[in-house]
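Now for my pick.
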Amino acid sequence: MNTIKYIAIGIGTFLGGKYLLSLNRARHKILTIVTAKKDKINAQGISVLLSYNIKNPTSANVKMRAPLVKLLFNGKLLASSTMQVVEIPQSVKDAEGRIVIKAFKETGQISTKIQIPWLSVLSISPHLLTRLQNQDSSEKIKLEIETISQIYTLAGDYPIEEKTTIEL
């Protein structure tokens, strides 16, 4: 009977350690792929449509809060997203509104719109405005996208932050 108890404790410790290791890997390996395109230009400013796909290449199931996305140009903040306009597919959304990322899966396209006010565009660079209005596809604007979120697991919550450079 004593031997069975020690075997059970050993198996439990092994499985618990394996789970914690996979969570640690997930924290460092979850990848957010962001794409963006100019949506429309209106009186308030320039609307940018951001789509992101979250990939989990690990064996841990995790949940993630909808990310806060910041648009930067040359290190200066142009605009940031709001959590209310994030469109999460129902297949990856739980009852609390979090994104469920299953092991070895990806979420599919999650989208949000960010409105860049004219004042931000004009104060950063007058050339940025002319390049955004230009329909020539060879002239691209490099924007930095900073994604900030929180990962929820059974072993605790972890912040996740990524920076990506995209061209519009």
